Structures are given as structure tokens and as C-alpha cells.
Amino acid sequence: MMITGNDLILACSAIGAGLAVIAGIGPGIGQGIAAGHAAAAVGRNPGAKSDITSTMLLGQAVAETTGLYGLLVAMLLLFVKPLAK
């Protein structure tokens, strides 16, 4: 079996895309932890529910950008192949 340069580029693109998608694990864990702590905070102080919720949602939006960047890199690696012929 002969592996050409084009085959190597395609294989590396697929491996890189898989690794980039793994970046979605961190935001998922972080958002779950943030939601759990926010729920506990609302349980302790129900009067501050709106402040806690808005702060939690802002933090989750910032954390989600990491996962979105990983997805973007994965899609670029899979569908945009500038070196492949």
C-alpha cells in the first residue's frame, strides 16, 4: 500500500479535527459546575436569583467560546483543504 502526500494530509486533517472537537469537553464540564454552584447559591439566597442567573449566563457564554473555536477549527480542517489537490 502506497501512502501519498495527499493521503497523509487528509489523514492528519481528520486526526486534527478529532482532537479539536475534544475542546468541547472542558466548556461542558465548566458550565455544569457553574450551573450547580449557581443553583446552590440561589438555594441559599433566593432574593439574589436574578443577579446570580445573569452572572452565571455571562460566565457560561464566555466559557462556550472555547468549544465553538474547537468546532470551527475542526470544520476548517475537514472541509477546507488548501494543500490537498
TrEMBL record:
Transmembrane segments: 56-80
Signal peptide: none
Compartment list: Cell membrane; Membrane
Function: Key component of the F(0) channel; it plays a direct role in translocation across the membrane. A homomeric c-ring of between 10-14 subunits forms the central stalk rotor element with the F(1) delta and epsilon subunits.
SUPFAM superfamilies: F1F0 ATP synthase subunit C
Site (described: Reversibly protonated during proton transport): E64
The name this protein goes by in its record: ATP synthase subunit c
Keywords in alphabetical order: ATP synthesis, Cell membrane, CF(0), Hydrogen ion transport, Ion transport, Lipid-binding, Membrane, Transmembrane, Transmembrane helix, Transport
Keyword Cell membrane in record: yes
Domain V-ATPase proteolipid subunit C-like intervals: 15-77
Coiled coil location: none
Membrane topology reported for the UniProt record: Multi-pass membrane protein
Entry similarity comment: Belongs to the ATPase C chain family.
Primary location: membrane
